[in-house]
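Recap for those who missed Tuesday's class. We walked through two folding examples back to back. For each one, the amino acid string is listed first and its predicted structure tokens come directly after. Nothing is annotated here on purpose, so try labeling regions yourself before you check the end of the notes.
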Amino acid sequence: MNLMKYLTPTEHKFSVKPCRDISFEFIQDGYQIIHKYSIGKLYQSEPRTYCFDDLGTENNLKYFGNECNVMAEILLSRYDLFISKKLQTHITTNLSATEIEKHYGNRVRSRLREMVNLIAYDKTTPDKR
């Protein structure tokens, strides 16, 4: 996905953002981070296309005592944008569909099924990093 962001036409450009970094931003800035990565910034005209890298490496976090699954909330918000504005979201993960359901719940899994195209690699495929 890091290579693809340079090969896509201007209207399909996206930013790659590690999920762990988003969770660390949430610890510092709170619920506005969910808004930032779903709907967008306050004065931004359109929501941005993101690639959330390594989904599943972040943890449920607390902000002033309130626990939140940050990426689940972002993905659910981006699903609404996908339905209303056809906003694309790219995701990389090492999790299987069952593991995604266990970590994020059935609701997120079913939304992802509709929202993304799956590109799966065989377990014997060598790592390309």
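Example two. Treat it independently of the first, because the proteins are unrelated.
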Amino acid sequence: MSVLPALLRDIRACTLCAPHLPHGPRPVLQASETARLLIAGQAPGRKVHESGIPFDDASGERLRDWLGLDRDTFYDPARVAIVPMGFCYPGKGKSGDLPPLPECAPAWQAKLAPHLRGIRLTLAVGQYAQAWHLPDARSLTEAVAAWRAHWPQLLALPHPSPRNNLWLKRNPWFERELVPALRERVAQALAE
């Protein structure tokens, strides 16, 4: 019998970081033992905190485009797991959202990972997910540029936020070379 449903209930009821969350806890994730694709993000933004739906914002639109997935497939937990480094919105900082709170990933990631046995491809989206999944990478650009190093099981991606438009403009190879290969690999992983 699976313990994942109980673990997901525990995560969604977590208040570990409550004293540090200006908008209160509202853990947002989706996962299933049958999921083939794992999107390891950073932390929910304000819009996601309000809706309770992962990547329910402009970043999600861009990410779905990069992956070549429609909303129904993206939000099907039987196919796609979305597990950020921080499950709750950490609040706003001087130049965007604050980073994921440091208590969250150590408390939950190791407990959750063994139950995601069906994963064929992990996407480390943004610097905080990359620090967890690719701890030897020196920078986000280096991790993304070295995409073939962990292919086809793990891939580093920049955060799809509109705030990263300058990075995308400076790195045109990303959308020219990596995105087509990513779409093909995502389709393959979901079909396995």
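Answers for example two:
The chain has nine helices and six strands.
Strands lie at 37-40, 80-82, 92-93, 96-97, 121-125, 154-157.
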